[in-house]
Structures are given as C-alpha cells and as structure tokens.
Amino acid sequence: MLKLKYLSLLLFVFVLTACSGAGQSSATPLPTVKIGGANGGASAQATSAGLGSASDVTASGVVVAAQKAQMAFTSGGTVKTVSVALGDQVKAGQVLAELDNISAQVALDQAKRNLTELTSTSAVAAAEQAVATAEQALKTAKDNSDKLGYARATDTLIQNTQGQIDLAKKQLARASDSYRGLSHLADGDGRKAAALVAMTDAQLLLNRLIAQYNWYAGQPTNIDADVARANLDAATANLQEARWYLSTLKGEQLPADATGANLTRLAQAKEAVATAQERLDGTRIVAPFDGTVAAVSISTGDYVSPGVIVLVVSDVTRFHVETTDLSERDVPNVKLGQAVTVTIKALGKDVTGHVTSISPLADTLGGDVVYKTVIALDLPLPEGIRAGMSVDVAYQVK
Fold this sequence. Notes:
Helix content: 40-55%
Radius of gyration: 51 Å
Structural class: alpha+beta
Low-confidence stretches: 1-54
CATH architecture of the domain at 57-67 and 317-395: Beta Barrel
Number of strands: 17
Mean pLDDT: 86
Number of helices: 7
Largest sheet: 6 strands, antiparallel, barrel
Strand content: 15-25%
CATH topology of the domain at 57-67 and 317-395: Elongation Factor Tu (Ef-tu), domain 3
Oligomer: single chain
Order of helices and strands: HEEEEEEHHHHHHEEEEEEEEEEE
C-alpha cells in the first residue's frame, strides 16, 4: 500500500513539471508549405512574416507525339487492301487502306468525261459561234427597235398620197352619181352593172390610199413598241450569257452575278466530278503526314462502317508534353513562354522546354480542379524517348 502511494506521488510531480514547461517560450519548427503538385517539387519555409520566396510549381505529365491522326473511312464497305502494318513508316499522301470502290471509280470517270465534253476544243468553238450568232441577233433587234422612232415616209410622199386620196374621192363621187342615174334599170343590164363595178373600184382605191396614208403618217402602237423592246432585251441578255459562257471556258474570271443555262450546266458537271471524287476518296485512307503506323484494326475482306477508327498514324520524330494534374492554385503562376524542366522518369533524364498553351477550361482529377498545359521540348531530345512516357514538370516561377 505504501509503495502504491509512492508511485502516485511521483506521477503527480511529473505532471506538474510538464505543465510548468508548457508555459515557457520556446522555438517550435514551422510547417513546410508545398507549392507544387502531388509529385513533390520545391517547397518554402513559412515564417511569422508569411511565405518565403516563390518556388517552382510542379505537375505530372505525359510525353505525346507532336501529331497523331485517328483515321476512318467516310464510306462503308468491304476492305479491298490494307497496305501497312503496325510500326510501318508512311509518307504524307500514301494510301494506307482501301475499300472495294469499283462503282465509285466508274462514277468518277463518267463525271470527268461529261465535264471534258463541255470544256473541249469543239465546245469552245461552239461557244464562239454562239457569241457571233447572238451579236447578229442583237443587231437585228436593235435595228427594228430604232425604226420605230423614224418617220415611215417623207413629207413629199405623204402629201402625194393625200393628193391621190383627194382624186380618188372625186372619182368615187362621179362613179356613185353614174350608178344612181342607172339604178332604175333592171338587174342584169350591162350599163347598170358597169356603173356598179366602177363605183366599187373607186371605193376600194380610196380605202387603200387612206390606209397607206395612215401608215406613212402614223406612230407605232404600244404593242409594236413592247414587242420591239422585249426582242431587244432578250437579244442583249442572250449575248451577255453567251459571252460569259465563252469566258469561263477560256478560264477567265466571271462576275458574281453571271448567269445562263450553259453556265448552270457546266457548274453542275463540275459539282458532279467533285461529288464523285469525294465518294471515291471516302473509300481510301491516306496518310495526312509523314509518320509511323501506331494501330491497325482491319484486314482484307472485313466489312467496316463509316466513321469507325481503323488506323492511327503518329509522328514519333517530334514530341511535346501535356500535363495532367496542374492544380488550380498553381495555374495563376504559369505563363505562356515560361521555361520549364521536364524529368523523363523512365530515362532518368531532364529536358528543358517552355509553355506553349494553357487550357482555358478546367478538368477534375480525384476531386481536384486541374488545368492542362502543353510544353514544347527543346532539342536535342534524349535517346529512347517515346510517346506515353511519364514525366515531372517543374515550372520556373520567378
């Protein structure tokens, strides 16, 4: 029992000593504040005055090929040929795979023949002839229109015709008087019949002279003017369209408002060629740049649907880095052109570079808000670098 009391006393003394020590002022290490991402990086010591000098911002990233094309057929069909295999080197414009496209090729050939016929030497000659014909038609229409504004006869001819009318009236009056003097005779009487014929001839002559006078002295009717104007407008338009068509056949520049049936037919023929070519192109996959085949998922005889990715080509001679976890807290310290140091983990080597883009849109990673940046790597690149390798990026913040 005495021993237990002794131990309790010792414990009480120890507690008092600890409490008195807590009241004394002593230096305590301040926490380390990390500026970079989850993969480490430089740090700064916090002081009573705040953070110390700024350190490099860090982020993780991955090596990415400078160019990567995921390719698909725009038409569906059966695969006729696959000209490459995984890892092959290809050149820009090289056909990598092709569908069965006989019908598309036939359609293109036909469309090209139709266009050739419309633009051949004989077609140009026919267009030149059409222009000449249209020019003559316009001249005729213009002459006919101009005639409506000219006098149909001279004053002398009109006066002469008026004199003939006066004489014809007197002759008609005499013939009428003679017939009236003989009208009591029986029908069939020769004298009465001759008088009737003379009166009738006199009346017909007078009518003819009056009509001739009216035509000489009269103006064209509204119908005459409308017909002449319509013919002139049509001839003018036909000539313009013929000239436009000839110009386009000769490769000359046309105004935006150029029209005409021949121009429409030519435009349709060109569009048919373009459509047929597009259809044929849709049956082929062509390398968009020099690179390496990174994936092939088709074989000869396979049926493929349009839009399904079947080939991937990458340019593995050039690389850049894309970051994956640059924090929203750190992105304000990153600027375009900012120098960086990239550590390629698999190679254990550092490469310098600079920031070429900063995504304006955020992404999320494990609940954190992050922004992607793209880093251009300086040459020379270390041997053995490959797309997909993990890296650490240190942004040099001043």
